Amino acid sequence: MNKELTEKLYNHFPELYWQHDLDMKKTAMFWGFDVGDGWFDLLYELSEKLQPLVNDINNKYEQFTFAVVQVKEKFGGLRFYVNGASDEINDLIDEYEKKSYLTCEVC
Predict the structure, then answer these.
(1) Nearest 10 degrees: CA dihedral of 7, 13, 17, 21?
(2) Average pLDDT over residues 1-7
């Protein structure tokens, strides 16, 4: 994904993508979003839906427990890997991974 769209996701959803500043030995988010620009809207919509769910998790604990650790394309579909997710979050991610097969990654 291009730099402008990547920064937009980082800036609008810092609680989700906070690992992007970590060393490459600690997280694959170091490499950013390994997908085409065509999935930006899909990722933005998913992030908007995840944000309140993640806020609930973060409010229960003193430090971040949820993290997006990798976002990439694999076998023609979105892969969105996280740590610290609830069943509700995992269900939402599954829904958007399925939607990616119906959305052009390029355009």
Answers:
(1) 50
(2) 97
